[in-house]
UniProtKB/TrEMBL annotation:
Keywords assigned: Cell projection, Cilium, Flagellum, Membrane, Transmembrane, Transmembrane helix
Ranges that cross the membrane: 16-40
Biological classification of the source: Bacteria, Pseudomonadati, Pseudomonadota, Alphaproteobacteria, Hyphomicrobiales
Species the sequence originates in: Rhodopseudomonas faecalis
PROSITE patterns: OMPA_2
Cellular component terms (Gene Ontology): membrane
Entry protein name: Flagellar motor protein MotB
Domain OmpA-like: residue ranges: 107-259
PANTHER family, sorted: LIPOPROTEIN YIAD-RELATED, STATOR ELEMENT OF FLAGELLAR MOTOR COMPLEX
């Protein structure tokens, strides 16, 4: 009896041990599965993270390239503006030596021939004696100074272009302006015609005195001297009185520099588009949504 009880207790203990062992094996198996899943998930996430880091590094490199390109482009434009500023200052100094005071607008590249330099009577486009004399002086100064700032020039019937000139004059606009007295009822048609006539008459006088100016060319082999008219749309004095009207009846010389920025900007745009694609790829490999 005692033996049977002992055997029974032993069997119960053994059964209990087997149950615990099975349970521990089961738990261990579950832990092993979880560990495998964790390891696989960690490896996957690590691979994703490594991939994302690689993409991020590539984006950082391209951002650095973009910053360098933009910085170089800004420096190039700054040098072009400095060249134009030097041109304007030289013209102003030369004209001052000839007894003419003019104004310059560095930001817009304008040499302003004030009423004291070139005066037009109201509703008139003819250059009067003193105005004609001053335009002749301006023509001779332009003839002396501008050739150093252009890319090409017609010499003895041949177009000769200089090399190594980073920025040059693309166009010189002879701009005609009027006062607002001819714009009745909002109809400014007369002033448009008048402003163009003033610019054309000034142009004709300039190239008559300095015909070599017509031989100055930009990189497209186009004459740099040109005309434009703005009617009363660009006053320098917005007041409506005789003094303001006299100021606004004027000629401006606007110097436009020739910068080959189109191709440069295309390259920058292409680089930004590439970076956009790289950023989208980074979002994708990181598990995000586009």
């Amino acid at each position: 009896m005692i033996a049977n009880e002992s055997t029974s207790e032993s069997e119960e203990g053994e059964n209990y041990f087997v149950s615990m062992t099975d349970m521990m094996v089961g738990v261990l198996f579950i832990f092993l599965i979880m560990l495998m899943i964790f390891a696989l998930d960690f490896r996957t996430k690590t691979d994703v993270q490594d991939n994302a880091i690689d993409v991020a590094r590539e984006i950082a490199r391209k951002l650095d390239d973009l910053q360098k390109d933009v910085t170089a482009e800004m420096a190039y434009l700054d040098r072009s503006q400095e060249t134009r500023r030097k041109l304007l200052m030289t013209l102003k100094a030369e004209l001052k030596m000839d007894g003419m005071d003019v104004q310059i607008d560095e930001a817009n590249g304008v040499l302003r021939l004030t009423e004291d330099a070139v005066r037009f009577d109201a509703s008139q486009s003819v250059l009067l004696d003193r105005a004609k004399l001053n335009v002749d002086r301006i023509a001779r100064v332009l003839e002396r100074v501008i050739p150093s700032y252009v890319a090409c020039q017609i010499v003895a019937g041949q177009n000769k272009c200089r090399t190594g000139l980073e920025s040059s004059v693309e166009t010189v606009f002879i701009e005609g302006h009027t006062d607002s007295t001819g714009a009745r009822g909002g109809d400014d048609r007369y002033n448009w015609q008048l402003s163009v006539e003033r610019s054309v008459n000034t142009y004709r006088e300039i190239v008559n005195v300095a015909p070599s100016l017509r031989g100055l060319r930009n990189t497209r082999n186009e004459e740099i001297m040109s005309v434009s008219g703005y009617a009363s749309t660009r006053p320098i004095d917005p007041n409506e009185n005789r003094e303001a009207w006299a100021k606004n009846r004027r000629i401006d010389l606007r110097f436009v520099m020739e910068v080959d920025a189109k191709q440069r900007l295309k390259q920058i745009i292409n680089l930004t588009e590439t970076m956009k694609g790289e950023i989208e790829r980074l979002v994708t490999v990181s598990g995000g949504r586009k």
